[in-house]
Amino acid sequence: MYVAVKGGERAIENSLRYLADERRGDRSLPDVTLEQIGEQFTLAVDRVMGEGSLYDRELAALAVKQARGDLVEAIFLLRAYRTTLPRFGATRPIETGRLRLRRRISAAFKDIPGGQILGPSFDYTHRLLDFALAAGGPVPEGLGEAAAAAPAPRVADLLGREGLIEAAEPATDEQAAPDLTREPLGFPAPRELRLQNLARGDEGFLLALGYSTQRGYGNNHPFAGEIRQGEASVEFVPEELGFAVEIAEIDVTECDMINQFKGSAHIPPQFTRGYGLVFGGSERKAMAMALVDRALRARELGEEADAPAQHEEFVLYHSDNVEASGFVQHLKLPHYVDFQAELVQVRAMRAAATARRDAALDEAAE
Amino acid sequence: MSAAMPDRESPAAGYSFAYLDEQTKRMIRRAILKAVAIPGYQVPFGSREMPLPYGWGTGGIQVTASIIGIDDTLKVIDQGADDTTNAVSIRRFFRRTAGVATTERTAEASIVQTRHRIPETPLREGQILVYQVPIPEPLRWLEPREAETRKMHALADYGAMQVRLYEDIATYGRIARTYDYPVQVNDRYVMAPSPIPKFDNPKMDRNPALQLFGAGREKRIYAVPPYTKVKSLDFDDYPFSVQTWDRPCALCGSTTSFLDEVITDDRGGRMFVCSDSEYCAGQVAGQRAAAGGKDGPGHD
Questions:
Q1: Pick among B23, B47, B54, B91 to test the A interface (most A CBs inside 10 A)
Q2: A58 phi, psi to nearest 5 deg
Q3: Best residue in B49, B52, B275 to probe A by mutation, most A CBs within 10 Å?
Q4: A chain contacts of residue B21, beta-carbon cutoff 8 Å
Q5: I need a surface site. Which of A30, A149, B209, B210 has the fewest CB within 10 A?
Q6: Is residue B174 a contact partner of residue B168, using CB atoms and an 8 Å limit?
Q7: CB B262 within 8 Å of CB B270
Q8: Scanning every residue of chain A, which has its alpha carbon at the shortest distance from the alpha carbon of B81?
Q9: SS3 for chain A, per residue?
Q10: How far is CA A232 from CA A53, A99, A252, A279, in A?
C-alpha cells in the first residue's frame, strides 16, 4: 500500500483553518484590538516596525496580532507588505539633535547641557512580578506636560567642538543613498549600507555579537556617550515643490558610542564612534547596533579584524531574521529525493566495504 | 496611527499581476537576459521580499512571476511531485495572483517551476524550466567568503573543486556528491544545478528548453540557454555516473526513472515508486489503455 506521504490542497486548507482558530483562542474572551496592541505592547510594535523596515504602528500591531505574538513572524508579514509599496524617494536626514526628548542619558559625563533625563525606562525597576497588575489594580496618573523636554545638543557634537572625537561623516546626497532593499548587497559594503543592514537586523543576533565584543572578541572600549529617545520630524522635498515639507513625526532611539581613540604622528588622537538608530524605544537594539557598527569599522581604522563581529560578510549576511528564519525552517520541506540519493550511495558504499572485508577474511582463511 | 487600512477583503486585489510590480519585473528580466547571455554566471539582482518564506522558493517564484503571461500554463513540482504541500502552495499563489492556467502535465506546461527534480518527460523547445535554488554558489563549501568566490569564478580558478572531488575518491573510493553535483556550463562557469539528484544532471545537457535558476535569499539569477553544453565534473578514470536501482517502480514498472523509497511498515517493508508522480500516472494510464485495447472497449 502506497502510504500518503504527500499532503495536498485540503491539508493546507485545514491547517490554515486550524491556525486561525488557535490564534483566536477562547471565543468567550474578548478579541484583542489593534489599538490595545499599539498602546500596550508598544515595544513589540516598535521592534516589528524597526526590523520590518516600515514605520506604521497600526500595520505593525496587525502583524503582531496575526502572528500570535511571534515577533519574527510579524516582522516577516510587515516586510512582505512593505515590498509591495512604491518608493517615492528619500527623505531629508532626520536631525536627531532636535529630538523632542523623552529620555536622554550619557554615561560619559556626570552632567550635560540639557540634563540627564531618565524617561520611561525599565532600568531602575526591581524585576518583581507585579501581582497588583495581574489583579487589575489602579495605575498612577501620567506626568503630563512635565514629561516633555526641550531639545538639547548631542554629546558627540559637544566633544566634536574640541576635536576630541572624529567628525560624523558628511551626509551623502539623500537621493543617491543606496537602498539594500532594492539592490543586492556587495562587498566591501560602505558604512551607510552596513548601518541599513544593522538597523533591520535581528535584535538577538546583534545583541550577542555586541556582547561578544565586550568579552574580548574584538574589544574597542566603548562608553555610552549618549542615548536619546524622542520624536523626530521627517521632511521630504517633493521634486515639483523644491522645498522641504514635514510629512511625519517618528519615535526613534539613538545611541552614540564613544570608542577607543586613534591617532598617528600626523593626526592627534581622537575618540572613534559607533552608531545605532532604531524606531521607537528599542534601546537594547540601538546599543548593540552601535557596538557592532564600531566593530565593523575595524578595517577602515587599521585594526586587526579577526573576531566574528568584525567580519563584514559574516555579520551582514546573517543578521536578517526573515532570511535566517526562512532558510532554517525550509529544512521542514520534503527532501526525500536528495535523501534517497544519499541512501543509495551509503548502501552501495556499505556493500562495497562488506565485500572488501569478506574478501580479506577469505584470504586470511586460505 | 496610519490612515485607511488596505482592502483586506480580496487579498489579490490591489496587487499587480503575478504579485510583483512592473518595475521589479523589468529589473528581474534584465537580470535574466544577462544570465542567458553568460551561461552559468550568477547575476546579482535586487531580490524582493516575497510573501512566502526565504528558502521556500522565493527565487523561483520571482523568476516565474517576471516571465509569466496570461496565456502561460504553469506546472509546479517539489520532489518531482505536483501534490507535495509546497508545490501546492506555490501553485495556489500564482492562481491567486496571476489567475493563470495550471497543469500537472509536463507536456502541457509552458513554464515548469521545480524544486529538487527535472521531470522525467523530456522537455521541448519553447518550454522554460525554473529552478528554486537555496545556495547558488557551487564553491561555497570550499570558500565561505563571497568576495573570494567571485574572484575564483572570474579567474576560472576551479582547482579547489577538483581537489575536493579527488579527496572524495581518496576517502570513499568514489565522488561522494549525490545531489547538487557541480557542473561546468559551456566549458566556462562551474555552476550549482540546485539540489537535484545527480541522476538528473545529464538531462540539463543540451536540453532544448530554457533553464532559469532563481535564488531569492542569496539574490542571484543564472541560466542555461537551450542546447547548451552542461558537463558534470569528473575525472577520466572516475567518470561521472548516475544512481541506479535494482528494481523497477512498484506502480508503473519504469526502470528508467528516479525512485523514491517508501517505508510501508516497521518490519523492514518498503517499496520504490517514481518520484515524478505525473510521469508515473501517465505510464500507468498508458498501460491500462494498452491492456484495454487488447481486451476490447468498455473495460477500464
A1: B54
A2: -70, -45
A3: B49
A4: 84, 86
A5: A30
A6: yes
A7: yes
A8: A6
A9: CCCCCCCCHHHHHHHHHHHHHHHHCCCCCCCCCHHHHHHHCHHHHHHHHHHCCCCCHHHHHHHHHHCCCCHHHHHHHHHHHHCCCCCCCCCCCCCHHHCEEEEEECCCCCCCCCCCECCCCCCCCCCCCCHHHHCCCCCCCCCHHHHCECCCCCHHHHHHHCCCECCCCCCCCHHHCCCCCCCCCCCCCCHHHHHHHHHCCCHHHHHHHHHHHHCCCCCCCCEEEEEEEEEEEEEECCCCCCCCEEEEEEEEEEEEEEEEEECCCCCCCEEEEEEEEEECCCHHHHHHHHHHHHHHCCCCCCCCCCCHHHCHHHHHHHCCHHHHHHHHHHHHCCCHHHHHHHHHHHHHHHHHHHHHHHHHHHHHHC
A10: 17, 5, 7, 10
Ordered per-residue pLDDT tens for chain B, 300 residues? 444 454 433 446 667 899 999 999 999 999 999 999 999 999 999 999 999 999 999 999 999 999 999 999 999 999 999 988 899 999 999 998 999 999 999 999 999 999 999 999 999 999 999 999 999 999 998 999 999 999 999 999 999 999 999 999 999 989 999 999 999 999 999 999 999 999 999 999 999 999 999 999 999 999 999 999 999 999 999 999 999 999 999 999 999 999 999 888 889 889 999 999 999 999 999 999 998 755 444 444
Catalytic residue status for B274: yes
Give the chain A residue nearest B14 (alpha carbons): A84
Which of B60, B80, B216, B249 is flagged as catalytic? B249
Whether residue A186 and residue B44 make contact (CB cut-off 8 A), yes or no, is yes
Q: How many angstroms away from the CA of A134 is the closest CA of chain B? A: 28
Contacts A184 to B, Cβ<8 Å: 44-47, 219-220
Q: DSSP assignment, residue B108?
A: G
Cβ–Cβ gap A58/B1 under 8 Å: yes
Residue B253 annotated to the active site: no
Is residue B252 part of the annotated active site? The answer reads yes
Residue A344 corresponds to which cell in the numbers above?
Answer: 543509495
Cis peptide before B11 (omega within 30 of 0): no
**Pairwise CB contact (< 8 Å): B2 & A59:** yes
The sheet with strand B189-191 has its strands ordered as B189-191, B183-185, B230-232
The H-assigned helical ranges of chain B are 22-37, 58-67, 85-98, 146-154, 159-172, 201-204, 277-295
Q: What is the complex's ipTM, to 2 decimals? A: 0.83
Report phi then psi at A268, rounded to 5: -60, 150
Residue A37's closest chain B neighbor by CA? B1
